[in-house]
Amino acid sequence: MDRALSGDHAVAWAVRLARAEVIPVFPITPQTLIMEQLADFIADGEMNADLVPAESEHSVMSVAIGASAGGVRTFTATSSQGLALMHEMLYAVPQNRLPIVMVNVNRSLGAASGIWLEHNDSMAARDSGWIQVYVETAQEALDMVLQAYRLAEDERVLLPVMVCLDGFVLSHTVEKVNLPSQEEVDDFLVDFWPRNMLDPQSPSLLNPIVPPDYAMEMRRQLDDAMERSLYVAEEVDLIFREQFDRSYGGGIEEYRMEGAEYAILCLGTAAGTAKEAVDRLREQGEKAGLLRLRFMRPFPHGQLAKACAHLKALGIFERSISFDGRGPLYAQVASSLYGSRLPLTEHIGGLGGRDVTVKDLLEVYALVRRQGTGEKVRLTTWHGLRGTP
Questions:
Q1: For the whole model, what pTM was predicted?
Q2: Does the CA dihedral 107-110-114-118 come out positive or negative?
Q3: What is the 3-state secondary structure (H, E, C) of the chain?
Q4: CA 319 – CA 299 distance, rounded (Å)
Q5: I need a surface site. Which of 159, 166, 252, 289 has the fewest CB within 10 A?
Q6: In sequence order, which residues have a C-beta less than 8 Å from that of residue 38 and are 6 or more positions away?
Q7: Average pLDDT per 10 consecutive residues for the chain, totaling 389 residues
């Protein structure tokens, strides 16, 4: 069934179809529409779940931890300052192997604060042990929440998943979304079977203080699970394609990369604009391509290296900045491709919700192309600036 839905409402429908049982909530723009829609579902008797209003986002994640450890499928959502307030509790979830699914609706954070899109909020949590996937469309938002539960609850993974959704550009815009039936989702998501449940009949300890004798081994187990999760995610995507006839390409989506000599890599909704730029360049005979990075964690090192093997240059476009002259996405890609000798350029734009236009990305492609021909260009450029700050 097709419906016109915003990205936030598509997420709420996915949570309903996944039969989440406990949903701790605290409102924050631009995430609030998700929780309001879920509250409506529950109030109207269309969803059997407990909506738990909490005192803050810190408390939200605390409730989610307790619910997941109690053996129920759990969901929550947040954004920006809310994710920052959760930060302490984020680290308790992966090490205790609790398969919580959370949507973070990306929004600017901290200084020059606003309610508009940036990726700095989720980038600050990229090393917390959560799987992180960035989506481009409302359809992918719905589909990835469903896939996130299957991925998180797989006994080879047992890690929480953060689905990252661009604020306003995706959360509040409306597009056609295909809603699968409840029977189809029930068939795709097997009944939740908690593996790390607190059970009075079998006493255990959650989140204990761990001495040096064991801490490194636990960290290594977590790292191994994160590495495995990429292969499980690809497997889940294949199963999803067989059932719903939609697929997203694993860790990276490749767009018009056949014969491409230069390309850019980006996250989220910027990819839609970049695809328009690529189409225009291809019409002009340019050999341009696009890589949309989907998983920031686990990072798809092998898939990236393979996708870039024939390129002469790669530009990294990102809506985040580490305030050291570089961005976190560029640092990750440069580290991953170290030794390949592929020329890289970094392009920062869209901060604070600034529009990212086709013109901006055509400028990016022009710089990357020049780099690929051996011309020396600036390593880092900012796009969309209105004069010199």
A1: 0.97
A2: negative
A3: CEEEEEHHHHHHHHHHHCCCCEEEECCCCCCHHHHHHHHHHHHCCCCCCEEEECCCHHHHHHHHHHHHHCCCCEEEEECCHHHHHHHHHHCHHHHCCCCCEEEEEECCCCCCCCCCCCCHHHHCCCCCCCEEEECCCHHHHHHHHHHHHHHHHCCCCCCCEEEEEECCCCCCCEEEEECCCHHHHHHHCCCCCCCCCCECCECCCCCCCCCHHHHHHHHHHHHHHHHHHHHHHHHHHHHHHHHHCCCCCCCEEEECCCCCCEEEEECCCHHHHHHHHHHHHHHCCCCEEEEEECEEECCCHHHHHHHHCCCCEEEEEECCCCCCCCCHHHHHHHHHCCCCCCCEEEEEECHHHCCCCHHHHHHHHHHHHHHHCCCCCCCEEEECCCCCC
A4: 18
A5: 252
A6: 12, 15, 16, 23, 25, 47, 49, 51
A7: 97 98 97 98 98 98 96 97 97 95 96 91 97 98 98 97 98 98 96 82 82 93 97 97 95 98 98 98 98 98 98 98 93 97 97 96 98 94 81
| Residue with token string 């192997």 | 97
Domain covering 252-383 in this structure, CATH number: 3.40.50.920
Between CA 198 and CA 54 the distance in angstroms is 22
Q: Which residues of 330-356 are buried (b: 16+ CB within 10 A; e: fewer)?
A: bebbbebbeeeebbbbbbbbbbebbeb
The two domains 2-244 and 252-383 share their CATH topology (first three levels equal): yes
Enter the CATH code of domain 2-244: 3.40.50.970
